[in-house]
């Protein structure tokens, strides 16, 4: 193993990265609280400031993917559509197969300049999570309890609030509602059979009501729907822990390209082509997922997608932002550590060791949130319910 790869795999490096992320995130969350005074005075200024503050947090995650693990991003798309990415509001439909698919979605938001303003439809529990969950609260992220009877009114109101948003944004949505697993796929296909819907091989049935309401509320605000499918070459199944370790998944691409993924982002569908009627919109989405399944089948057979492969340029801002916070926060940490060692106090050193242990547990818990085998049971408990 080369020295760079060795350093990337060391737990102390992981702790320092997580220390920078958590402490800087909490500082930014604290600043976001004070921006609330702007809301009744100048709502648009509040939003613009929080887009920049949110970027300072989410770009650190993207930095890990782009600079720490050396991710190579290949985009298959129509060249005419490529020039519109980042210059318009869009609904982005993503598949939900990998532990880091959310991070790959952020990666493309970053490369097209909409990372700070990007939106998602997220489960309510995430709003209580420090750093990212609190950041999302100030970004006016749409949270839901995954009980449509309770969610519908709240989701519609939050979506309608975005109609005057001052920044271009992408609304990222996983229509399947949960990550793909064989167990969930089996249940989903039982629902498909009961409803007389065509079965899918590589996706779960989409949950159409949330998508239909999103289209309804954001019509005339959003210009297009981007149909997007993420895959990793050579059947790799990367994890956030792997990214943190800088693990080399593709030796034939050397250590510069540890994760290599293809992202078909090529179907830009003007929003006026998406039906307004809820049932027609539902039928449209089911048809789209049948087409996505065909794209996936083609990828497994050929190792490529239709469309022109393009590598969006990597921007330096994620790395510069991380370096800023590293310089700001590591100096007082090292100074504190030296002072504690010089003090020679057993109690002080024991306290520091306890903090390190607790920090390591916290880091592992945060990573565990992304793991598929510890993911949501949403979908597993639906075998006796109708698909939303």
From TrEMBL:
It catalyses: (4Z,7Z,10Z,13Z,16Z,19Z)-docosahexaenoyl-CoA + 1-(9Z-octadecenoyl)-sn-glycero-3-phosphate = 1-(9Z-octadecenoyl)-2-(4Z,7Z,10Z,13Z,16Z,19Z-docosahexaenoyl)-sn-glycero-3-phosphate + CoA; 1-octadecanoyl-sn-glycero-3-phosphate + (4Z,7Z,10Z,13Z,16Z,19Z)-docosahexaenoyl-CoA = 1-octadecanoyl-2-(4Z,7Z,10Z,13Z,16Z,19Z-docosahexaenoyl)-sn-glycero-3-phosphate + CoA; 1-octadecanoyl-sn-glycero-3-phosphate + (9Z,12Z)-octadecadienoyl-CoA = 1-octadecanoyl-2-(9Z,12Z-octadecadienoyl)-sn-glycero-3-phosphate + CoA; (4Z,7Z,10Z,13Z,16Z,19Z)-docosahexaenoyl-CoA + 1-hexadecanoyl-sn-glycero-3-phosphate = 1-hexadecanoyl-2-(4Z,7Z,10Z,13Z,16Z,19Z-docosahexaenoyl)-sn-glycero-3-phosphate + CoA. GO terms for biological process: phospholipid biosynthetic process. GO terms for molecular function: 1-acylglycerol-3-phosphate O-acyltransferase activity. CDD domains: LPLAT_LCLAT1-like. Pathway: Lipid metabolism; Phospholipid metabolism; CDP-diacylglycerol biosynthesis; CDP-diacylglycerol from sn-glycerol 3-phosphate: step 2/3. The keyword Membrane applies. SMART domains: PlsC (SM00563). It is an enzyme of class 2 (transferase). The keyword Transferase applies. Residues 90-212 form the Phospholipid/glycerol acyltransferase domain. One of its GO terms (cellular component) is endoplasmic reticulum membrane. Keywords: Acyltransferase, Endoplasmic reticulum, Lipid biosynthesis, Lipid metabolism, Membrane, Phospholipid biosynthesis, Phospholipid metabolism, Transferase, Transmembrane, Transmembrane helix. It comes from the Eukaryota. The chain crosses the membrane at residues 12-41, 322-341, 347-367. It is a multi-pass membrane protein. Its EC number is 2.3.1.51. It is found in: Endoplasmic reticulum membrane. Belongs to the 1-acyl-sn-glycerol-3-phosphate acyltransferase family. Converts 1-acyl-sn-glycerol-3-phosphate (lysophosphatidic acid or LPA) into 1,2-diacyl-sn-glycerol-3-phosphate (phosphatidic acid or PA) by incorporating an acyl moiety at the sn-2 position of the glycerol backbone. Exhibits high acyl-CoA specificity for polyunsaturated fatty acyl-CoA, especially docosahexaenoyl-CoA (22:6-CoA, DHA-CoA). PANTHER family: 1-ACYL-SN-GLYCEROL-3-PHOSPHATE ACYLTRANSFERASE DELTA (PTHR10983:SF8), 1-ACYLGLYCEROL-3-PHOSPHATE ACYLTRANSFERASE-RELATED (PTHR10983). This is 1-acyl-sn-glycerol-3-phosphate acyltransferase delta. It comes from Heliornis fulica (sungrebe).
């Amino acid at each position: 193993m080369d020295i760079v790869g060795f350093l990337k795999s060391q737990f102390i490096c992981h702790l320092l990265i997580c220390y920078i992320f958590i402490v800087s995130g909490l500082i930014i969350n604290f600043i976001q609280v004070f921006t609330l005074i702007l809301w009744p005075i100048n709502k648009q200024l509040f939003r613009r400031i929080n887009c920049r503050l949110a970027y300072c947090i989410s770009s650190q995650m993207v930095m890990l993917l782009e600079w720490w693990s050396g991710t190579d991003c290949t985009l298959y798309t129509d060249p005419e559509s490529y020039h519109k990415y980042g210059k318009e509001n869009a609904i982005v439909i993503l598949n939900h197969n990998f532990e880091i698919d959310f991070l790959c979605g952020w990666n493309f938001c970053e490369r097209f300049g909409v990372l700070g303003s990007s939106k998602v439809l997220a489960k309510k529990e995430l709003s209580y999570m420090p750093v990212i969950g609190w950041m999302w609260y100030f970004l006016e992220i749409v949270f839901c309890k995954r009980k449509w009877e309770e969610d519908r009114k709240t989701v519609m109101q939050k979506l309608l609030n975005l109609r005057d948003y001052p920044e271009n944004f992408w609304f990222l949505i996983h229509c399947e509602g949960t990550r793909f697993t064989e167990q969930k796929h089996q249940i989903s296909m039982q629902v498909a059979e009961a409803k007389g819907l065509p079965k899918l091989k590589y996706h779960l049935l989409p949950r159409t009501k949330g998508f239909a309401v999103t289209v309804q509320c954001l019509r005339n605000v959003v210009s297009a729907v981007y149909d997007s499918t993420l895959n990793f070459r050579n059947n790799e199944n990367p994890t956030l822990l792997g990214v943190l370790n800088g693990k080399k998944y593709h030796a034939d691409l050397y250590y510069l390209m540890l994760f290599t993924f293809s992202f078909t982002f090529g179907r830009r569908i003007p929003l006026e082509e998406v039906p307004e009627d809820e049932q027609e919109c539902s039928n449209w989405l089911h048809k789209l997922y049948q087409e996505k399944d065909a794209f996936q089948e083609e990828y497994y057979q050929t190792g490529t997608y239709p469309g022109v492969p393009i590598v969006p340029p990597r921007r330096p801002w994620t790395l510069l932002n991380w370096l800023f916070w590293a310089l700001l926060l590591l100096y007082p940490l090292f100074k504190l550590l030296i002072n504690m060692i010089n003090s020679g106090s057993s109690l002080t050193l024991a306290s520091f060791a306890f903090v390190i242990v607790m920090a390591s547990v916290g880091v592992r818990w945060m990573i565990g949130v992304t793991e598929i085998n510890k993911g949501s049971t949403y979908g597993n408990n639906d075998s006796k319910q109708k698909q939303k």
